[in-house]
TrEMBL record:
It comes from the Eukaryota. It is a single-pass membrane protein. This is Attractin-like protein 1. Residues 179-211 form the EGF-like domain. Residues 62-180 form the CUB domain. Its main location: membrane. The chain crosses the membrane at residues 1002-1026. The gene is Atrnl1. InterPro entries: Beta-prop_ATRN-MKLN-like, CUB_dom, EGF, GBD_ATRN, Kelch-typ_b-propeller, LE_dom, LMN_ATRN_NET-like_EGF, LZTR1/Attractin. GO terms for cellular component: Golgi apparatus; membrane. Disulfide bonds join C183-C193, C201-C210. It holds the Pfam family EGF_Teneurin.
Length: 1148
């Protein structure tokens, strides 16, 4: 900022302020302030000193080899650091070993921060699990007693990789591992050996060699039926472990026959036909052979794999996120995700002939099915109704797709997105009584963002109308729902919706069990009797058969292949009141007199929430409020609200959806120029993907996606890391040091053998590069030069040899740093892995530049450019002139007779110039450092015909005042004589005042002459103005009199004869008074009349001597009603005469 003050000697003195852009204050902060900041190390002098195997500015990166028989793996104390990348390789020294992993603490961000566990030595080994979410955390009451996850790696090695993005963090991981001898064959592959080489059997197996089937749960009040592997409970007990008394609704965890033949899966599809639950597709962690089509026989609790008939077509490929319905004896499978892309394929499978058929879509009026995944399909009569989902063309698909199973035609309809937002991973059930579809939850797309939904909405497929129902209060997606009577039962799903700004305590893998009453429009939490702590999951399916809900599969770090079932109590089967009351203690049955029915604890006997409260809960949206089933109205005021009935007086009542303001559509089809941000899925390269603001790139999946679509693309942790900026950070080829290389789990370092740290980062694992070398292959690396878990001792980036194995002796090639990893001061470039450093090119205006980019930090004010090569006029209203190249200066051109104030910081030089304009007046130059330390100054002059000459050199200021005579210097000529001031060696912040004064000397005689001349001139002007005013006023008055005389002259003349009575004679008869002449006023409201008036005489009636006795008079006559007058005032009919106060003239 500078302040400019006018000091010109004149009558007026003024000041004003101008602002210019200041250089930013840059201060480098320390990496740490205490040991807690360093996640796996300690803090010294603001720097983190990391433990062995750890590195990074906060010790957040690691790659550790563990070969002890047991130990603990942890990411450090407290919350893990954001953007953490850590790898551990557990390797057994013994052959035929099994590695056991027990998770004592699991607390990460759901879906985004993942721990990958591989059964082997690299990321290409079989994937055992992908762990995320808060499952067990002693610091959180809800999860302090969570399940202890257990996994085994039977290859003798386990590779673990933990990835955290840069946002939300949790308390991290604590894993206890142990290595035991692999005796799985001796234990019939149903257990492992302990330290004494004895078999420790898995759940559901027993015997010395784990060869006897038993119940998966301990039978507490009964015995185990080994044929069915289910507990047979004693009388009065029920449940999977016979631990539930009475006949209340309860869960059973099945250990089904043939279950081992069925791979675990998630986001599959299930449908009921007869006694079978048919299952198709699904996501699995491994790419091993996968049985797409299987079925579960409910009565026998057994599984079987279904192979199509010999003459059948090949059938659909593996997919997940699809839908399946059963119609007659045929299964219809629609949509889903095949590897990276959604599809719109419709397949049918004849369960009697066991034949597949790809159904050809026949659109009506051009309709054809959209590509979607994560949708739902509901059968209504003979129509398959597909709701929402996520696809490439529309993102969150705001369409209802209907397929007529009889005609084979598709119809597509839009939805009122202001009532229901399009979603992914929601549930839908059909009520055949009310003929309504109930849609609940999912990841919903709104105008502001994409978020987990709590909304429940009903859809009438015949009328195509939507109604808002009561929200559940808990968001979730990829859950399951079935209809049991008038109750919708909802189980599981993912509810985590935390962000770095808003923490969430909701579970990633929920085992919540809730019921929604269609009758009461209310939600109720259900008891989890018999449900194991480890039953939480998402991506599962559920069907309902004979009042029992069957749940299959799902995901909780691993893909499940188990069956859970919930059987409700017998209350709704009881028909009489007495029996219902008898089951109150055992089943909590209640008789509902209004409906004459027996209801259980999961049912709603009568509403617990009033309609007014239900309406009030829909305050957030006019559309949902007015589309509610309760007839709510939306009231507009300062805080809008939804209520039952009419709004209070003075507030607008909106009682129908049509009256609500329409909101913008959230998902428009990508067309034209709008496609750039909506077509991330079409991009195939990282560089193109990251060039678009809304896209993000997953290198491990080679997929570009919209930033709001990460969860719908990778709900099971398929992406090992994403990037929105620099692509090289997620590629092996982009890593130039061994340490950077080891931040990526699929990369290893190939040393060149020079013992200077040179090498190449390559795709590989502990056994070497992934690509098999050939004679011409660039991926060859000798075994003794391959470093996957460790790095070579000497890491000097090719710029030095090492002493004491790992200390760089001397950094050559203009490099610096402990590992010669940066360019020395005054140089720039990428020194890593043999890179070159070049000298900074700053045109003499900087000694250093950015070590990577070469951008100079210019010393001089108003000098800018990457190389300090130009003058900067941005942000200033003054004129900047000069040439910054080759050490030239950029001058602020200052005007004469003004005092300027400049605040200078972060710069060490500043330059000014002034061109005197008068050739006969001296120039006074003043320079002062008002605040801050003194600086040095050079003062010089030049012109078009003279070279620059120095007037003062290295003058220390403080303060400098000097006058230069016009006789000694040619001011004001055509040659543009110029003073130049260059101030340098500025330290810190200073306030600088500078001025160039060129004004004549002040003379007292000239002052008085000028003063009196001005005074008398002003006095003369005032007198002249007064004379003119008087003359003009007289002129106006004369014209006014002339106009009056003309008016008087225009009046009519009259003659009158008078008969005067004798003195003393009184007139007895009153006569109207007659006027000689009458002239109306301008508004015709009155008249001016001229009358003859008899003057009063003497007592004897004679006129005094010298008088005539009569005269003319004027009177104002108002036009009103006749008024009675006194005897001395005769009247004119129709008028009121008032005597004038002035007698104008007398007449003869």
């Amino acid at each position: 900022m500078f302040v400019l003050t006018c000091i010109r000697r004149s009558m007026l003195t003024f000041s004003f302020v101008l602002f210019v852009v200041l250089g930013c204050l840059v201060s480098l902060s320390n990496q740490c302030s205490n040991n807690k900041d360093c996640k796996n190390g300690y803090c010294t002098a603001g720097m983190c000193i990391c433990n062995p195997g750890w590195w990074g500015n906060l010790c957040q990166f690691c790659r550790l080899r563990l070969d002890q028989d047991s130990g603990i793996i942890t990411d450090g104390d407290g919350k893990y650091a954001s953007a953490s990348k850590c790898s551990w390789l557990i390797e057994s020294k013994k052959p035929n070993s099994t590695i056991h992993l027990n998770f004592e603490e699991v607390s990460t961000e759901c879906i985004w921060d993942n721990l990958y566990i591989y059964d082997g030595k690299s990321v290409e080994s079989p994937l055992i699990a992908v762990i995320s979410g808060v499952i067990r955390d002693a610091s959180k009451d809800r999860y302090s007693d969570g399940p202890v996850l257990k996994f085994e790696a039977k290859s003798g090695a386990a590779f673990l990789y933990f990835y955290s993005d840069k946002y939300y963090v949790e308390n991290g991981l604590r894993i206890r591992y142990s290595i035991t001898k692999d005796c799985s064959a001796r234990c019939n592959f149903h257990g492992h050996c302990d330290k004494n080489d004895l078999c420790v059997c898995d759940a559901g197996w027993t015997g010395s060699s784990c060869n006897i089937q038993t119940c998966i749960s301990e039978c507490m009040n009964g015995y185990c039926d080994n044929s069915t592997r289910l507990c047979v409970c004693d009388s009065g007990f029920t449940g999977a472990s016979c631990n539930i008394t009475g006949d209340k609704g309860h869960w059973i965890h099945h250990s089904s026959r043939g279950q081992d033949l069925i791979q675990g899966r998630a986001s599959h599809a299930s449908a009921i036909l007869g006694d079978y639950m048919w299952v198709f597709g699904g996501y699995s962690l491994n790419s091993e052979p996968f049985e797409n089509l299987v079925r579960y026989h409910i009565p026998s609790d057994s599984w079987e794999v279904i192979s199509p008939a010999v003459n059948s077509s090949k059938g659909p490929s593996r997919r997940y996120g699809h839908s399946m319905i059963a119609y007659n004896s045929t299964l219809y499978i629609f949509g889903g995700r095949i590897e990276k892309k959604a599809t719109n394929q419709l397949w049918s499978f004849d369960t009697e002939k066991l034949e597949w058929d790809l159904v050809k879509t026949r659109g009506l009026d051009g309709d054809s099915p959209l590509y979607v995944a994560g949708h739902t399909a509901t059968l209504v009569d003979s129509t398959m109704i597909v709701l929402f989902g996520f696809g490439p063309s529309r993102g969150y698909t705001d369409r209802v797709q209907e397929y007529d199973l009889e005609t084979g035609k598709w119809r597509i309809y839009s939805i009122p997105s202001d009532i229901i937002a399009p979603s992914f991973g929601h549930s839908s059930v059909y009520d055949p009584v009310q003929k309504l579809i109930y849609i609940y939850g999912g990841i919903a797309s709104t105008v502001k963002s994409d978020e987990l939904s709590t909304a429940l909405t009903s859809y009438d497929p015949k009328a195509r109308t939507w109604k808002a129902l009561k929200n559940s209060g808990v968001p979730r997606f990829l859950h399951s729902a079935v209809l049991l009577g008038d109750r919708m039962l909802v189980f599981g799903g993912s509810s985590h919706n935390g962000t770095s700004q808003k923490q969430s305590d909701l579970p990633c893998f929920s085992m919540d069990f809730v019921a929604y009453s269609l009758t009461c429009d209310e939600w109720k939490r259900m008891p989890n009797l018999g449900l194991l702590k480890s039953a939480g999951r998402y991506g599962h399916t559920a069907v309902q058969v004979n009042r029992t809900m069957y749940v299959f599969g799902g995901f909780q770090g691993v893909a499940f292949n188990d069956i859970l079932s919930f059987t409700s109590g017998p209350c709704d089967l009881i028909k009489d009141k007495g029996t219902c009351q008898m089951h109150f203690n055992s089943s909590e049955c209640i008789w509902n007199d209004s409906t004459s029915s027996c209801v259980g604890p999961e049912s709603c006997a009568q509403p617990m929430i009033t309609v007014e409260e239900k309406c009030s809960a829909m305050n957030g949206s006019c559309s949902r409020c007015t589309s509610s089933v309760h007839g709510c109205s939306y009231c507009k005021e300062h805080i809008a609200r939804c209520m039952k009935g009419k709004c209070p007086d003075g507030q607008e009542t909106i009682d129908s959806l049509a009256k609500c303001a329409k909101k913008p559509t959230t998902n428009n089809k990508c067309e034209g120029s709008n496609c750039k941000e909506k077509s991330c899925h079409k991009v195939t390269s990282c560089e193109e993907c990251t060039s678009t603001l809304s896209c993000m790139w997953c290198e491990s999946q080679k997929l570009c996606m919209d930033s709001n679509a990460y969860t719908v693309n990778f709900p099971f942790g398929q992406c090992r890391g994403w990037v929105q900026e620099t692509c090289s950070t997620v590629r092996c080829s982009g890593m130039k040091t061994c340490a950077d290389c080891h931040t990526l789990p699929g990369c290893g370092w190939c040393d060149d053998g020079s013992e200077t740290g040179l090498g190449q980062c390559m795709d590989g694992g502990d056994d070497g590069p992934f690509t098999k070398p050939t004679n011409s292959s660039s991926n060859q690396c000798l075994a003794n030069r391959w470093y996957f878990m460790e790095c070579p001792d000497c890491q000097c980036n090719g710029h030095s040899k090492c002493i004491n194995k790992n200390i760089c002796k001397k950094c050559d090639h203009q490099t610096d740093g402990p590992h010669c990893e940066v360019c020395a001061a005054g140089y720039f470039g990428d020194a890593k892995n043999g890179g070159k450093c070049e000298a900074c090119q700053c045109n003499g205006h900087a000694d250093t530049c950015d070590a990577k980019t070469g951008v100079c930090d210019c010393f001089d004010r108003w000098v800018t450019g990457d190389n300090c090569e130009r003058c900067d006029e941005r942000g200033t209203s003054t004129v900047i002139v000069g040439n910054a190249t080759n050490g030239g200066h950029c001058y602020n051109k200052l005007n004469s007779n003004f005092e300027y104030t400049f605040n200078v910081s972060n710069k060490t030089r500043i330059s000014f110039l002034n061109i005197p304009t008068k050739d006969d007046i001296d120039v006074e130059i003043s320079v002062r450092v008002k605040e801050g330390k003194s600086a040095l100054m050079n003062l010089s002059f030049s012109s078009d015909v003279r070279k620059e000459e120095t007037l003062a050199h290295s003058r220390k200021i403080g303060s400098y005042d000097q006058t230069f005579s016009y006789g000694a210097f040619p001011f004001g000529g055509r040659d543009k004589f110029t003073f130049k001031v260059h101030i340098y060696d500025i330290k810190g912040f200073i306030t600088l005042e500078i001025s160039f004064i060129q004004s004549p000397k002040f003379l007292i005689l000239n002052f008085f002459i000028t003063f009196f001349a001005c005074f008398f001139s002003l006095l003369f002007v005032v007198a002249l103005a007064w004379k003119i005013k008087v003359r003009y006023s007289n002129y106006v008055m004369a014209r006014h009199r002339h106009e009056e005389m003309k008016l008087m002259a225009s009046r009519p003349f009259a003659k009158v004869s008078l008969a005067l009575s004798e003195a003393g004679q009184l007139e007895t008869k009153k006569k109207p008074l007659s006027a000689i002449a009458i002239q109306p006023t301008e508004n015709h409201e009155a008249d001016v009349g001229v009358f003859m008036m008899r003057l009063p005489g003497s007592e004897n009636g004679f006129t005094p001597v010298g008088q005539m006795g009569v005269c003319c008079a004027t009177a104002l006559i108002t036009r009103g009603q006749v008024t009675t007058q006194g005897p001395n005032f005769p009247t004119i009919r129709g008028t009121i005469v008032k005597r004038s106060s002035m007698v104008r003239t007398c007449c003869m």
